[in-house]
Amino acid sequence: MRRTAVLLKAFGARAFFARDIVRGFRDPGTWFPEMIRQMHRIGVESVPLTVIVAAFLGGVTAFQTRFQLFPGVQLSVVGLIARQSIVLELGPLLTALVLTGRVGARMTAEIGTMRVTEQIDALETLSFDPVAYLALPRFLAGVVMLPTLVVLANTAAIFSAWLTLILATDVRTDDFVSGLRLAFTPFQVVYSLIKATSFGAAIAFVSSYEGYVTEAGAEGVGKSTAKAVVIASVSILVLDAIVAAVLAPFIQA
User: Residues 137, 31: contact at Cβ < 8 Å?
Assistant: First the structure.
């Protein structure tokens, strides 16, 4: 019973926090300027890391795929497998997990530091809505910028896969392009973006909440940051499974 009560209390606290985020939409003057700044910090500043991770991801995926093929299999299959692996799964998932450490940890540390230094209390004293000023802009920026970064990651990974194949294997450009086009449907891109949007929402929500409820002291900020990264990572994996279970049957429709 005690564990159930703790679980319900934690769920209720997060539900109230989500309610406060929704209420924050009523004051765009508070959250909109900060949202633009957060979009730059989450998106633009994460581009180099995203491209580097995606480039290695695409190259390794294509290289491994080529040398796992049975003799006699058409080489165009490499392009097909690389595209499906990157666009449907590896691109959005690994981009989100990597950015959880970079973006999510920073969100939690920033808001947590404001909590322990009583800056959030000062905002409330000045009649500012701290959730609208701190959590809502980060949430919206995460929802907007994660799909953008995933599109960039998918593009970089596929380009890296092509470059690796033509330089290090016997796969030709015609074979790779033929595989990329094979059985492609626009919904595959939509599927990837749906995952990215849900991952961005999870990272921003979890990180903002854990920072907002940080306990006093530097140790509290450290604990909240570590907790946020773990919970956000697990949430991403759970959302990945849910989206796949619901939408995967429609990929080739």
Answer: yes
CA distance 108 to 230: 12
Question: How many Cα atoms occupy the beta-carbon half-sphere of 37 within 13 Å?
Answer: 10
Report d(CA 210, CA 107) in Å as an integer: 9
- Percent of residues, the chain, with pLDDT higher than 70: 100
Residue located via tokens 């765009």: 28
Are residues 179 and 66 in contact, defined by beta-carbon separation less than 8 angstroms? no
Rounded to a whole number, what is the distance in angstroms from the first to the last CA of the chain? 46
Could you tell me where the DSSP H helices lie in the chain? 2-23, 28-42, 47-66, 76-85, 91-99, 105-116, 119-125, 130, 136-168, 173-181, 186-212, 218-247
> How far is the CA of 61 from the CAs of 65, 70, 91, 95, 206, in angstroms?
6, 16, 11, 15, 31
Query: Rg of the Cα trace of the chain?
Result: 21
Greatest extent of the chain over all pairs of C-alpha atoms, in Å: 72
State the pTM of this model: 0.93
- Residue 29 in contact with residue 127, Cβ under 8 Å? no
**Coil, strand, or helix at residue 185?**
coil
- Count of all residues that appear for the chain in the document: 253
Q: For residues 110-118, give the mean pLDDT.
A: 92
Reported as a single tens digit per residue, the pLDDT across 181-236 is 998 999 999 999 999 999 999 999 999 999 999 987 778 899 999 999 999 999 99
- Could you tell me the two tokens for 168? 């290090």
**Residue 109 amino acid letter:** A
Measured between alpha carbons, how far is 56 from 35 in angstroms, rounded to an integer?
31
